[in-house]
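Summary for the steering committee. One of the milestones for this cycle was to obtain a three-dimensional model of the protein with carboxymethyl coenzyme *A bound, which we needed before selecting residues for the alanine scan. The sequence and ligand used are listed below.
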Amino acid sequence: MAETLTITDNRTGKTYDVPINDGTIKALDLRQIKVTDDEFGMMTYDPAFMNTASCRSAITFIDGDQGILEYRGYPIEQLAEQSSYLEVAYLLLNGELPNQTQLAEWQHSVTHHTILNENFRKLIDSFRYNAHPMGRFIASLAALGTFYPESKNIFDAECRQKQIHRLIAKVTTIAAFNYRSTIGMPYAYPDNELSYAGNFLNMMYKMTEVKYTPNPVLERALDILFILHADHEQNCSTNAMRAVGSSQVDPYSAGAAAAAALYGPLHGGANEAVIRMLLEIGSVSAIPEFIKGVKGGEGRLMGFGHRVYKNYDPRAKLVKQVAYEVFEVTGKNPLIDIAVELERIALEDDYFIKRKLYPNVDFYSGLIYQAMRFPMEMFTVLFAIPRTSGWLAQWQEMLGDPDQKIARPRQIYTGAPRRDYVAIDQR
Ligand code: CMC
């Protein structure tokens, strides 16, 4: 028998049976609940989507209470250990792990789409020297779409695939070229013989050497971080990608909107905010005073807490491990001692225990980036590069979902009732 929910409207005494599917009821099924026939009907009020599923998705599974994260059913721990970022991107986009031929074709295609149109350099050169890398990244994504006017044909599967390959490839070049521009370094062009992460390091750090050889430990660490950041179901930026994409705009414009959402300090900006916080704390001995301040409402413990995880973020565990591997090569980032002690104290503190606040992915990632010589302002860009595959997988899924339409929430109007315009001399 189909599961239903019976609702009694105490205003009218009427009873309604609403179907339950997958533990949810359709908000539209509430519309029939009315006191009078000419009324609009019942809605739900859910600012910040605290308890609303905005889509059905087969991409990423999170169990926030148990700290589980899976991409297409594969545990994040196994992917981080055994897979590569490009393989994971393929998995997110296509639903299955690629076979050898598919992976080789995919890697070849992404690798051969990393070059930017030379005219794009003028755009990058036109930013002020101190422009924030995320501002540059957002603008660059939007601008990139202007080079591919055909990208608006979003229902042409072949054309859509081409843009997906381009975007995943070119975000690395956009990020690296913008970085080189800020420090006045000549652009380092992509090297097709290197891996995705290795080539990104090449475009970032190549000096005068003929061939850049990435350190394999750092290359692998970056690739793992890319895997861990690739998707995270309906987070703020993915929601932006879907919402903006639902207007049927091209994926570059929707991607720019998603990147803008990621820029905020409560989302992808948190990894930068963590380092600033650790620098501000300055020493292990200053931690108790800092925690006291947080509990007193003076700011938040950045890199802690999550809307979905009410347990240790599984990504944070993996990032912490990777941090120590990276420090073997780069030398220890001195801020790690403050971070570890901060975590220890916070996890024993009633305030954090009661609110189920645990380290999230951003708590340790910045320490790795810093040890790898990425400037702090670039940390969110390092999140945006791999999240591009998640955004595109979610965007593609949305386009093929017959339930979806242009995203357009309702509101509860709280303004003035209708009134007549008053001439300015009578106000
Ligand atoms: N430090 C101190 N208190 C906190 C923190 C924190 N980091 N996070 C939440 N709280 C408290 C908050 O004050 C509230 O307390 P009370 O019930 O007394 O008012 C309670 O915990 C619930 O917080 P909330 O703001 O209602 O929770 P939310 O689900 O709306 O926010 C969050 C989630 C991630 C925005 C928030 O935990 C936060 O601001 N964390 C710091 C920023 C951060 O690390 N963001 C990265 C998130 S993970 C990666 C990503 O998404 O990009």
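Key point for the committee: The chain has a mean pLDDT of 96.
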